[in-house]
Design goal:
The chain has nine helices and five strands. The chain is an alpha/beta fold and 245 residues long. The protein has one domain: Nucleotidyltransferase, domain 5 (2-Layer Sandwich), CATH 3.30.420. The chain has a five-stranded mixed beta sheet with strand order 3-2-1-4-5, sandwiched between helices. The longest helix has 34 residues.
Length: 245
């Protein structure tokens, strides 16, 4: 598989769709090897988003942003470009129509829906429908896969909270998690082959009797977790069956 998966990371002034976006970072990559192909990072005009597209800033998020190191604040605000220029550059930067394309972000309710909302509003403004370049079935969340595989994103405090740097870190963690899960799948496939060649007694040791026994016979052995139960050696009569119900 080539580098058809795309990771996005936004730096925003809010936490939900309809908030102002300061910066968009993105990179195409191979989820199995972690190889990164194309990269993208652009800052957006904040005032245009507010006045033209009705996007808003969350006061709590603004306070949090102001507490970031000066170099990070400068990195996500220098040389901002018009919204339309950024969106069209992002669309042209990657192959969104490839059948293997998947769009990844670190949080299902953050980057993808926020970016989708901005593109939709821009499309409405300029009279372009369906401008969002990815299908709704293509979006993926890194958190699920990382949690399943027990992998964490390694953050560099000096570089975190810039879109492209975060993308690269998330790609590294995601590819590690993918390799772990692929290892599990390979091990299961190998075990399935082994199990297919086993007899029933070999597949379920300690749970099946060695010889075929009737329903009212005492089994020669049972599962280790089962309590010892004394079974009748003769079939019950109809009356006996009613009595024990």
């Amino acid at each position: 598989m080539s580098c058809h998966h795309i990771m996005i990371d936004l730096e925003t002034e809010g936490t939900r769709a309809g908030c102002v976006i300061r910066q968009i970072g993105a990179a195409s990559f191979n989820p199995f090897t972690g190889e990164v192909d194309r990269t993208f990072e652009m800052n957006l005009d904040v005032e245009e988003q507010r006045s033209r597209f009705g996007l808003v800033s969350d006061p709590k998020t603004l306070v949090w942003l102001q507490a970031l190191p000066a170099n990070i604040q400068e990195a996500m605000t220098r040389d901002p470009k018009p919204v339309g220029e950024v969106i069209m550059a992002l669309i042209r930067a990657f192959d969104w129509s490839h059948p293997d394309m998947r769009l990844w972000c670190h949080g299902a309710t953050f980057d993808e829906p926020i970016l989708r909302e901005l593109i939709i509003r821009f499309g409405i403004e300029v009279g372009l429908k369906d401008l969002v370049p990815w299908g709704y079935l293509k979006a993926r969340c890194t958190r699920d896969r990382l949690e399943l595989a027990g992998v964490k994103v390694e953050r560099d405090a000096a570089k975190s909270h810039t879109g492209l740097e975060d993308c690269i870190k998330q790609i590294k963690a995601l590819s590690e998690a993918t390799r772990i899960i692929e290892g599990w799948k390979k091990a299961k496939a190998e075990m399935d082959v082994v199990i297919a060649d086993c007899t029933e007694e070999e597949r379920f040791p300690g749970e099946l009797p060695v010889e075929t026994l009737g329903p009212f016979k005492t089994p020669t052995f049972g599962p280790s977790w089962a309590p010892a139960v004394s079974m009748p050696t003769e079939p019950l009569t109809v009356l006996d069956e009613k009595a024990i119900r």
